[in-house]
Specification:
Blueprint lengths: L2 E4 L6 H10 L4 E4 L2 H6 L2 E4 L5 H10 L3 H5 L5 E4 L1 H5 L1 E4 L4 E2 L4 E7 L10 E6 L1 E2 L15 E6 L1 E2 L5 E6 L3 E8 L2 E4 L7 H13 L1
Parallel strand pairs: 1-2, 1-3, 3-4, 4-14, 5-7
Antiparallel strand pairs: 5-6, 7-11, 8-10, 9-12, 12-13, 13-14
């Protein structure tokens, strides 16, 4: 299986590739449009700000490439947020594969922002391919200040408010947490993506 990890310039690229290697899956870290289009699976990781990441994708000529993908695509962290229409972070126009706007997490003074830590998921669609073998008792590692609305969520989590932890629309799926840093539970989710 060919797996393209889009080189979006984020800090988590190496750990995503290593997590795939631990599963016995070989991947290529790339900005090459032909390589991305030809891959059987595509992963869009991201760390940082939405406006900056969208600019990096534009400069690499990859915005329309990603929008046109028909194979299974998995967004990770900022990669989830980029799949929506807009982000309030930098008032960024995003990829528009999922309707809605990503907004800043609404937290009171008792909660830290960014949200950094381990949370459980509430699966609203336990039949989703990414949920295979996951009960909701597992813990996943999150680092984010912005979050997507729950309209297209197949799993949610909470930090001051309920937010989309896993989303799906057509061949595009994404998780707000970092599966590559979420131990066995994250490895299971990545394996589910590779076999979906």
């Amino acid at each position: 299986m060919t797996i393209a990890v889009i080189n979006s310039g984020g800090a988590n690229l190496g750990s995503v590739v290593h997590a795939l290697n631990r599963l016995g899956a070989e991947s290529v870290l790339t900005r090459d449009a032909a390589e991305i289009r030809a891959a059987e699976r595509v992963i869009l990781p991201g760390v940082g700000a939405a406006a900056w990441a969208m600019n990096a994708l534009r400069e690499a000529g990859l915005v329309e490439v990603v929008r046109g993908l028909t194979q299974p695509v998995l967004g990770i962290c900022l990669g989830l947020q980029l799949l929506f229409e807009r982000s309030d972070e930098g008032d960024a126009e995003c990829l528009g594969q999922i309707p809605g706007t990503v907004g800043k997490l609404a937290v009171d003074a008792s909660l830290r922002l960014p949200h950094m830590g381990w949370n459980q998921l509430a699966w609203s669609d336990a039949g989703d391919p990414l949920a295979r073998g996951l009960s909701g008792d597992e813990w996943f590692y999150f680092v984010h200040s912005f979050a997507a609305p729950v309209d297209h969520a197949v799993a949610t989590s909470e930090h001051g408010q309920r937010f989309a932890a896993v989303v799906r629309r057509g061949n595009f799926a994404a998780c707000q947490f970092h599966p590559e840093k979420s131990a066995a539970a994250g490895a299971r989710l990545l394996a589910n993506f590779l076999s979906s």
